[in-house]
Specification:
single chain; 5-stranded mixed beta sheet; 8-stranded mixed beta sheet
């Protein structure tokens, strides 16, 4: 049995004071997480964590013995430490990003940095970002290059070097794999990708053996070679096979390459490819869902299994009797009702860091001693939240009007029996490849705390359901993708969950589009609509926004969204006369993904059509509100808007 010893990190940067429970405690949801990632060093002497602050994310390094901060790195104002890796026992390599909004995916800058555990020797190794004193950074600058670099392998057996990929800023960049000295910054090329925008995979010996990439046609190609210096051979061409095969890693002896392979009619499979015989063998496949996360061996770091999100998470292994499988079964027994995942380990395998999450728990980290079988809690991502007081998210399954199997989640207010509730339909952003997950969801928890049921659905085009399901959403903006949301809403009414007279639809980014399109297409189904950082004029997407700056951006827009001349008919800004319900729009003036002109155009069209519309615009925000005060005002306005149209007069409280 695993025993538990509760501990607390004493570093001020990682702790927050618990907040009193209130009817709707906005501050509890607006406050920034205590940390993003934590990893243990190869010897177990240190813990490293990324800590978000008001205008940056910093790297903090602690002694494991007493959790005392000993070093770290700070990229400066408006810059963030994105990913980090222990390259040696006491030196880390990390990447930088720029993140404008809370709902943005971080924009990797392509810079790589290094710092020692004691905070000394913090410097940029390769990249194109300048560090200036005014930003408050502690990074020593070097001569900059107009390239983007990404870690391929930390090469833990090599005391000075890591393996990276380097890509120039050109229209069709052919990537190189290079060994990078983590002290001097010196680089040596070891491979050139035979395909643009290549992503490399190395074997245990550090030899670059596989690469996947795509040109401006957005067609994926996978290449393999026997060893360093050998000729690349084409292993998969999406144009011919009609599927993508993504390399996951090599077996310990290098004889097999593990692939996540798409299938024409079902979910992705994990396949082993024998390098000598070219034999493919299916190791894992689910009836409905793609692998959500690959599980790597504690001993060899080769792929050994996968986490599947089949409603609630479950793990499967190539060998159910392996040591890795047995360890996971022990952890799952120790954390019933939650999902534990091993995130890092010491070199000898004695200590592992385990992340534990659920629909009610934003995340706890435990240090697991594999010898003593002790699990000591290191920290919670949000110490001020009590998981027992949070709302449950129930997995659901239903059929669309054309018979397609749809999955999703219904989140109910704590203590509710789920009968005839006011409900908010919450379509996700993306939309393609993104999917709803069984995890702590801020929007759902906030709305549930205010007394609303929340419906999140994986409409066609979403990820986690195979290639065919995702491609079924192509060019279906305002069409079958929207119908799936409608069908799910009506299902919730039929099940008695939702009061048909009190339903609102609210979403961000693509979800904002779906909210306004739902209001136009189903004028009698919803009582209000909220669009946050949304796109509402689809022809405008071909002319404005950051998609055009991507090498394959125009190809993507035409193949997945549609030709400009056909999109006016499914643009909410052109359909405002069909909307009969109040609307709330929020947007940022620096949003490059969904420029604010979409919202302003939608606002003008609604006013011209006589539709009540409220707005909240911040000139300095991007694709999501980042400043805490701005997020708080948005949520205050959102809850007040919902309360007026479908709510029951709940209070919004401020914690002192």
């Amino acid at each position: 049995m695993i025993r538990f010893v509760k501990t607390a990190v004493v570093a001020v940067a990682l702790l927050f004071v618990c907040m009193p429970a209130t009817a709707v405690d906005l501050d509890a949801f607006v406050r920034t997480d205590a940390f993003h990632q934590i990893k243990i060093s190869p010897t177990g002497e240190y813990l490293a964590a990324t800590v978000p602050l008001e205008d940056r994310t910093v790297l903090v390094i602690l002694q494991r013995s007493d959790h005392k901060p000993v070093g770290g790195a700070n990229l400066g104002r408006n810059r963030h430490v994105a990913g980090f890796w222990w390259a040696t026992d006491d030196r880390l390599v990390f990447s930088g990003s720029e993140k404008i909004g809370a709902h943005d995916a971080p924009r990797l800058t392509g810079d790589l940095y290094a710092v020692s555990a004691d905070g000394k020797g913090a410097e940029i190794l390769v990249g194109q970002s300048l560090q200036v004193k005014e930003t408050g950074s502690n990074i020593k600058p070097r001569k900059m290059e107009h390239v983007a670099a990404f870690l391929v392998d930390p090469l833990l057996d090599n005391p000075r070097e890591v393996l990276i990929s380097v890509q120039k800023f050109t229209e069709d960049p052919f990537t190189t794999a290079e060994r990078l000295d983590i002290y001097s910054g010196r680089r040596v090329r070891v491979a050139l990708a035979p395909v643009p925008r290549g992503t490399f995979v190395a074997d245990k010996a550090g030899q670059v053996r596989a690469v996947i990439g795509a040109g401006i046609d957005n067609v994926s190609k996978l290449y393999l070679r026997s060893g360093s210096g050998d000729e690349w051979k084409l292993l998969n061409d999406e144009a011919t096979s009609q599927r993508i095969e993504f390399p996951l890693g090599f077996s310990d002896d290098g004889s097999k390459l593990f692939l996540q392979a798409e299938h024409p009619t079902g979910p992705d499979r994990i396949v082993s490819y024998d390098v000598a015989t070219a034999e493919r063998k299916t190791l894992l496949v689910d009836d409905v869902h793609d692998p959500e996360e690959i599980i790597y061996s504690i001993a060899t770091h080769e792929p050994v299994g996968a986490l599947y999100l089949d409603g609630k998470p479950r793990t499967e292994f190539f060998d159910a009797q392996s040591a890795d499988a047995r360890q996971y079964r022990g952890l799952e027994a120790a954390f019933p009702g939650e999902s534990p995942i091993i995130t890092s380990k010491t070199r000898d395998g004695r200590y592992t860091l385990v992340r534990v999450v659920s629909d009610r728990n934003p995340g706890d980290y435990f240090l697991f001693d594999t010898v003593k079988k002790d699990a000591a809690r290191i920290i919670s991502r949000r110490e001020w939240l009590d998981p027992a007081a949070m709302a449950e998210s129930r997995p659901i399954t239903l059929a669309s009007r054309d018979g397609l199997r749809l999955t999703g989640y219904v989140t109910l207010p704590p203590g509710s029996e789920g009968n005839a509730l006011p409900m908010v339909v919450l379509p996700h952003g993306g939309p393609f490849g993104i999917h709803e997950e069984w995890q702590f969801h801020d929007g759902s928890q906030l709305l549930a705390a205010a007394g609303y049921a929340v419906l999140r659905i994986n409409f066609r085009g979403s990820g986690n359901h195979g290639r065919a399901f995702e491609q079924a959403g192509a060019r279906e903006w305002g069409g079958k993708m929207q119908d799936d949301l409608t069908d799910a809403t009506r299902w919730a009414v039929q099940q008695g969950i939702a009061d048909p007279a009190r339903i609102c639809i609210y979403g961000a980014s693509y979800g904002g589009y779906a909210a306004l399109m739902g209001a136009a297409k189903e004028p009698d189904l919803y009582r209000c609509a909220v669009g946050y950082i949304g796109v509402y004029d689809l022809p405008m997407m071909h002319a404005r926004g950051d998609m055009q700056r991507r090498g394959s951006g125009e190809t993507y827009l035409r193949e997945w969204i549609g030709d400009p001349e056909s999109l006016a008919a499914v643009s909410p800004s052109r359909l405002a006369d069909r909307i009969k319900i109040p609307v709330f729009l929020a947007a940022g003036g620096e949003d490059e993904r969904a420029p604010i002109e979409h919202s302003r155009l939608m606002e003008r069209a609604l006013k011209q059509a006589g539709v009540p519309v409220e707005t909240l615009y911040y000139k300095s925000e991007g694709h999501g509100f980042y400043v805490q005060a701005h997020r708080r005002e948005f949520y205050e306005r959102l809850l007040a808007f919902l309360d007026r149209h479908i709510g029951e007069g709940r209070d919004v409280a401020t914690a002192e």
